Amino acid sequence: MLPYLVILILVWHRWNEKRIVDLRWSNIDGMNVRFLVFISLVAAALGLAAFYVGTRVLTWSEWAATHGAAVWLTLAICIVLQFLGPILYRALPRHKNKLFFLHWLTYTALGVFACMFFYVLVADVLVGLVALVFPFDGVAHAQLAIVCAMVSITLVVGSLQVAFGPRVYRIDIPLPNLPHAFNGFRIVQLSDLHLGPMIGARYAERCVRVANQLDADVVALTGDFVDGAVAHLKQAAAPLAGLRAKQGVFFITGNHEYYSGVLEWIDEFKRLGTDVLLNRHVVLRRGDGEIVLAGVTDYSAGRMVPAHASDPARAIHGAPPGAVKILLAHHPKSYAAAAQAGFDLQLSGHTHGGQFFPFSVVVRIAERYYKGLYKIGALWLYVSRGTGYWGPPLRFGVPPEIGVITLRRA
Fold first, then answer.
1. What is the rounded distance in angstroms from the CA atom of residue 345 to the CA atom of residue 300?
2. Alpha-carbon distance 216 to 404, whole Å?
């Protein structure tokens, strides 16, 4: 355990470009302790999941039982990759292009492993429930075949949905006090692009090209656009400077910006031509009408940068009282404060709609509002499925999206 902790401490300080004077526990700050606890829990969870999958596969297949060492070695490699890929990517930023295949392998292995675990669990539960009513034997081989088939289908379909790129979703939202001049006003939303080791400038150019064809009045970038420092991803983000809208391109921070050097990224997005809304608003005018567009920092930002605590009420302070108020908030959970502050519409992202099965099931439990359009009292909430992806390059059943939100006078 001690060597494991020492390695994690070294890696964490390497990521933050700090130098370790000594390795005494008292010399580790609170962030490092939380990081170590988090990684330890992840490692433990992966180990338990691998043990469960391995024992079931060995039980179901005679061939696997006679090649047990190969089964355990494969599972061990899957787990090691989850740490090796990110560590090398962070430790060797100058060689990130050469490490692309390793990172792709890391996240693909994670996708395969997650699907395998879930399908094995479901197979066990279903067979167990059926066996309570209709006892039977000899289904082990069928269970393994079905699990492997479902994993294969998930990988193939999920990879194709990523390859096809973002799908355009069109949503009309009726607002009773919308000025006549704003009837038909279009907001094009991009969210959760996740530029980084897996998504680069080519995919960003593709998204910009699609967005620019949608005749936007406003382009809203609702956070989680980067997974890495400005120095490493500046070129990948460069195509975003090509986004065009009649009344401007607006950006808000997501949680991943705070993991990637948020202050530098705020400056970079300003340089790219976006108006960064940090707990503030702008008044948009069209003809003789006006509406308010506000943006808040990420829901969890205050824990990382206290001055950036998300505050919808502050964002709307001083706005015209009778105007329609639209909030850009990365996390859907901002809806309660948004409704209390008097917003009519909130545009969010964060959840990816679960991204791929089985996480699309898990996110329904973890998040009350996880994709699509909701009406919460007087507040409309639209949650994007995300324009890119994070982790495994899969989008099974939840294709990436660019949203076109059209305001209609109710």
1. 21
2. 8
| Angle made by CA atoms 128, 131, 134, in degrees to the nearest 5 | 160
Q: State the burial class of residue 101 (Cβ atoms within 10 Å of its Cβ: 0-12, 13-18, 19+).
A: exposed
Nearest partner of 32 among 9, 15, 14, 2, judged by Cα = 9
Domain boundaries, the chain: 2-161, 167-409
Look up residue 337 and give its DSSP letter.
Answer: H
Core vs surface per residue 237-265: b (16+ CB within 10 A) or e: bebbeebebebbbbbbbbbbbbebbbeeb
Task: Please tell me the distance from the alpha carbon of residue 256 to that of residue 14, in angstroms, as a whole number.
Answer: 19
Q: Which residues contact 117 (CB under 8 A, 6 or more apart)?
A: 49, 52, 53
Residue type, 303: R
Task: For residue 232, give both structure tokens.
Answer: 């490493």
CA-to-CA distance for 87 and 67, rounded, in angstroms? 31
Q: Which of 356, 389, 330, 351 is closest to 200 using CA atoms?
A: 389
pLDDT digits (tens, 9 = 90+) for 12-71: 444 443 333 333 333 334 446 666 777 788 888 888 989 999 998 888 888 878 888 888
> Token match 């439990």: residue?
365
* pTM of structure: 0.85
* Phi and psi torsions of 85, nearest 5°: -60, -55
Residue type, 166: P
pLDDT value for 97: 67
The whole-number pLDDT of residue 98 equals 67
CA distance 170 to 242: 22
In this prediction, residue 139 carries a pLDDT of 67
Query: Cα separation of 371 and 46, whole Å?
Result: 27
Burial 152-174, CB ≥16 within 10 A → b, else e: eebbebbbebbeebbeebeeebe
CATH class of 167-409: alpha beta
Decide the pairing of beta strands 249-252 and 218-222.
Answer: parallel
Among residues of the chain, what percentage have pLDDT more than 70? 88
User: How far are the Cα atoms of 275, 291, 337, 407 from residue 320, in angstroms, in the given order?
Assistant: 20, 8, 19, 19
Return the pLDDT at 41: 85
C-alpha–C-alpha distance, residues 279 and 252, integer Å:
9
- Quick check: helix, strand or coil at residue 19? coil
